[in-house]
Amino acid sequence: YRDLHTFELQAPTRLIEWARGSRVCVAGYGQSDGNEILQLIPPPTLLTKETQGLCPERDFKVECGGFSERPVYSLKYVPDTSLLVTSGPPDSSLQVWQVSAEDSDVIKSVSPIATENGTGQSWAKIATISARAPWVLHGSRLDRVQITEVESRKNVYTAASRGSEELSGLAFLDCNTLLLCCATGQLCVADIRQPQNLMEAVSVPSAPCSEQWCMGTRHGAQGLEPSSQPVARLSSRGLLTLTDLRKTSEFLALAKARVPSPGSGAEFLCVSWAPALEGCLAISGFDGTVHVYDTQSWDSSGREAEPIFVHKGHAFGGASGSGDPPLVTVHTWHLQKPRTLLSAATDGSLHVWDWVQPCGKC
Amino acid sequence: MPEIKVTPLGAGQDVGRSCILVSIAGKNVMLDCGMHMGYNDDRRFPDFSYITQNGRLTDFLDCVIISHFHLDHCGALPYFSEMVGYDGPIYMTHPTKAICPILLEDYRKITVDKKGETNFFTSQMIKDCMKKVVAVHLHQTVQVDEELEIKAYYAGHVLGAAMFQIKVGCESVVYTGDYNMTPDRHLGAAWIDKCRPDLLISESTYATTIRDSKRCRERDFLKKVHETVERGGKVLIPVFALGRAQELCILLETFWERMNLKAPIYFSTGLTEKANHYYKLFITWTNQKIRKTFVQRNMFEFKHIKAFDRAFADNPGPMVVFATPGMLHAGQSLQIFRKWAGNEKNMVIMPGYCVQGTVGHKILSGQRKLEMEGRQILEVKMQVEYMSFSAHADAKGIMQLIRQAEPRNVLLVHGEAKKMEFLKQKIEQEFHVSCYMPANGETTTILTNPCIPVDISLGLLKREAAIGPLPDAKKPKLMHGTLLMKDNSFRLVSSEQALKELGLAEHQLRFTCRVHIQDPRKEHETVLRVYNHLKGILKDYSVQHLPDGSITVESILIQATAHSEDQGTKVLLVSWTYQDEELGSYLTSLLKKGLPQST
After folding, report:
1. Pairing between strand B3-10 and B27-31?
2. In what residue span(s) does the Beta-Casp domain sit (chain B) (predicted)?
3. How high is the mean pLDDT of chain B?
4. Structural class in CATH, domain B214-386
């Protein structure tokens, strides 16, 4: 490690989102009521480029907070506005919030975006963009994907129904292109200008036991054609596939991560690309560790890959050892500092760590 | 409505110069009397003129309570008691009483000698002020006067810090001072019982921070010290004699032992003895671990930490020195600093807040060329680091304390209003209590619902229990009695007994009501009709038809006469005593409905 900071949140979070001004947002998911959404100002150590050892301000400050009546499973800021959107059980409706940090430190709830709630619908996955207007893309199933304009609540797009598979993630590739990932591993690309078409991408290798999949897309790569960025998919058995959306008939790469099997479920599976390191991605959700991989050496053979770094902090950090060992719920990369990550676990811990490449490059 | 009034004179929505005035059931208590470390003029003292414009403070205040020896809680005490004028009792814990004067004298020296101020308290004033102090033990109930009592609870934070419960009758307030809910190496965590005060006054300085774990801070501190020492440099750590210094000493000692390091660690002479003396004296105030090991060896007698001699500063090679005073404003630490500042291999680690104007403050702000006396310029090449190990409660800790004490209301001090709205809502939602955040000079009034104990006479209790349904723990039962307030006691007795005790005669009240009934028949027939009607309805009551033509229902009398002007209308006179009010009204309304045709 180059640096490691551990913090303890009052309640565990399963999301870490970056906001304007280097703010970080976390939210509780445990109780049925009284979950807190916290917008935090990271300590100056994390904002500067160089790492300082001792710094006067080493703590996160709660800039503002809100109270959610339901567990918060997903949260996204709406760019160019002072709003954010959250979703969580028991249904697929979205809650909208207003953040006005200068006036008061309370995040206020604004009226929710309702959706038609069929039976057996779980919580909605969300993505936001501000292209023509602030939009939120949301849905819990493949046949319930829509884009709603946040301020007017108008429905702007509804995806053509294909199947009713549950979604594990969705993203805007650009202001016209959507990427949807099903829990079964299927990837679908849609162009919102052609609501009738839903293009299917390559599926995943079939497995004897059912596994769950999630995806990670690359953000922030300015000026590059979004569909040229490979999309990573991670399964609950530890399989990783990289796909180029322009050539969906084959995998760019296929590898297996060394994870404990069977996985403890797919609740917290998370895979993400490093914004500043070419070809590096991180995975978590199997145990109390976060793995970092360099995918540039991968091929399509499906061999086991060796991580270039493993963060084990959450497995040790934990308290008295009562109950189950902590499970990492989410991780995210720092947007500027290339090797810094933030990760959170089920015991309420929040770690910020900066790793050192063990040998040579990067 | 009875109420508790709280007015912060300092520390309402800002940090520094804590001073809170509480009025409870006619008693006035001042909580803390601190100095604001950031100002050099009158703003550093709380505004005492608010308390009483021309009256004497001694007459107005029943007592003053000091929570701990930090200057932002006790720094203005000598000014208050000797220069403004107060002769009443001042309460604090034993360690605070022992250590307070040392810090006050130290601060006085800097302000007067170094800065040349004239309107400041003198050494004699500090001594005179301390003569007014009454020391208290933990969990000891102290009677300030017949009605006002106080009790101290362990607060952690620094040696001798306490939270105080102030109680008058059944109304109480708990003031936390500065506290810490997580134990550290030499102090335990704050603790209070489920005393359910009407109001809890809590500090909220760190309420909005999520603190870096202690392990990380310590690890980084040790790393810095180790790196410096490894490359042959010297580390200067300016500290106050008591407080975090002990914590850091224990930390370094353990590290040195584990890593088998040889570089010497020194602690200022004079202060070592005094500090050790106080910690030994107040060993019960430290944490469990220290007390347990104290039997085998004195935790504060270190193997690797030795007493410092001025000459050592010139010794070559690496070393670590703890020297006082803490802000590099004078004395030994400043001397050492001047010797070592020019060498970039050396390091100074500032362990806490530095007052403006001190060298400590200047170098932390980034200044690298300092003007010393005699116009000498000192170039600072040594590394300057800052690290704060102060122990305060964060949001989680505040919630824990509220959960322990179960107050009915919460008041927050020491924070900025805008940044406390979220915490206020959090507290209100989780505990369903009201949360207040007054500014300096703003008075908050909290309504209380005191319980007033009343004795009930056995005779009355037995009598009421016998009437009506059986007593049930789940159902409230209405009972009648008379409340006698005599000689500060309240008694509930039956009316007869009350009359007897007070020597009053009982008055009889009798009501009579006229009910008109359309009935052309003769009076005695009407009466018969009424009698049969009532007998049929009031089966549980004794309804009688008397020979003189009147009807009685229990003790209520009904008589019929013909209307003077209209023979077809009969007038029923219904008469009852006050005791039969209920039945009387019922009968009247029943009769007003008219008689059924059949009878």
Report:
1. unpaired
2. 245-363
3. 83
4. alpha beta
Q: Give every CB contact of residue B140 below 8 A, 6+ residues apart in sequence.
A: B151, B152
> Are A38 and A26 contacting, i.e. CB atoms less than 8 angstroms apart?
yes
Q: Beta-carbon neighbour count of residue B403 at 10 Å? A: 11
Task: For residues B98 and B371, give the distance between their C-alpha atoms in angstroms, rounded to a whole number.
Answer: 36
Class of domain B3-210+391-444: alpha beta
Residues of A in contact with B211 (CB under 8 A): 7-8, 58-59
- pLDDT per residue over A238-267, tens digit each? 888 888 777 766 777 888 887 776 555 678
**Residue B451 sits at the chain A interface (C-beta within 8 Å):** no
A318: closest chain B residue by CA = B213
How big is chain B, counted in residues? 599
Pairing of strands B569-577, B510-518: antiparallel
Please give the positions of B annotated as active site.
Answer: 203
As a whole number, mean pLDDT of residues A183-190 equals: 82
- Burial letters B83-101, b for 16+ CB under 10 A, else e: beebebbbbbbbbbbbbbb
Do A165 and A184 form a contact (C-beta atoms < 8 A)? yes
Q: What is the pTM of this model?
A: 0.77
Helix axes B523-537, B581-592, angle to 10 degrees: 120
CB of A69 within 8 Å of a chain B CB? The answer is no
Distance from CA of A89 to the nearest CA of B (A): 21
Q: What CATH code would you report for B510-593?
A: 3.30.310
A67–B213 CB contact, under 8 Å: no
C-alpha distances in angstroms, B151 versus B134, B162, B174, B175, B409? 13, 9, 9, 11, 19
Q: ipTM > 0.90?
A: no
Chain A nearest-CA distance from B355, in A, is 15
B77 falls in which pLDDT band (50, 70, 90)? very high
CB contact under 8 A, B349 and A105: no
CB spacing of A105 vs B211 below 8 angstroms: no
Asked whether B382 and B348 are in contact (CB, 8 A), the reply is yes
What residues of chain A lie within 8 A of the CB of B217, using their CB? Answer: 58
Please report, in angstroms and rounded to a whole number, the separation of the first and last CA atoms in chain A: 15
CA A207 to chain centre: 25
Q: Verify whether the Cβ–Cβ distance A54 to B210 is below 8 Å.
A: no
Domain boundaries, chain B: 3-210+391-444, 214-386, 455-502, 510-593
Q: Do A6 and B386 touch (CB under 8 A)?
A: no
Beta bridge partners of B23: B5, B28
DSSP A138: E
Measure B384 CA to nearest chain A CA, in Å: 10
List, in sequence order, the alpha helices (H) in B283-368. 288-294, 331-340, 359-364
